[in-house]
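Exercise 7.
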Amino acid sequence: MEDDSQEDVKVKLKRLFSGWHHPIPEFIDKTEHIIKNRITDRIPVKGWTKGNVILLGDAAHPSTPNLGQGGCMAIEGAYILAKSINKYGLSKKAYDRYEELQFPRSQMIVKESLKMGQMGQLSNPVFAFIRNLAFKLIPSKLSVKMVDKFFSYRVNKLDI
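Solution. The predicted structure, written as tokens, is:
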């Protein structure tokens, strides 16, 4: 995590976003309290629903942005939940079906994102060199195939 001890978080944000369009710098100026938290992965655990309270997106399965799938999973989850409610009504069956369908994909993506983040943060120069060399040598077709499982997913094809 980047060390902000030498620069106040608000001062840093003002510096980073100073050239941005209106109203971004003004939002920063007028914000009294800025909270900064670390980005984190947490392997999903079952139990996203209790009564009529349902966790969705990062509340159910937070993920670091290494694969760029966090927002996608939230939209997918909302779609699955809406379709489940449409089919089963506001019921335990609908909520359970949402979790049953969303959990495996979320778990896989969070685990893959965690692995990718660990590889990207290797500090040992030898391991970092090997990682960088491997990424350079992997053929493009293989690289595309490796990420295709994330981008070819079609939530609207699920049997809800």
